[in-house]
Amino acid sequence: MDCQINNLTRRLVSIHCNSGKTYHLPPGYKHELPEQEVVQNASIKKLKDRKIISIIKLKSKSDTTNVSEDKKPEVVKKEPEKASEKPAKKKIQTKK
Fold this sequence. Notes:
This protein is α+β, with helices and mostly antiparallel strands. Helices cover 17% and strands 25% of the residues. It has a domain at 2-58.
């Protein structure tokens, strides 16, 4: 299951994850992370308790989609128009 982390402040927030990665969230920015990065993380808990970030748990992708992954959308290629099919340009007549 994924989590969405929102920066609630007007300043840059650095988030240190369990895997060792650090994410820098600009003001008002939202970022999705795997739940394993957020669970039992003391620094993320402190940021949440101080109301610097909010954490929203998202539904997993397998729960929301019932379409099999084997089916791919069809790609329709449009053939280019021939030069003879284009309308001819009108010539402007000028008085001499």
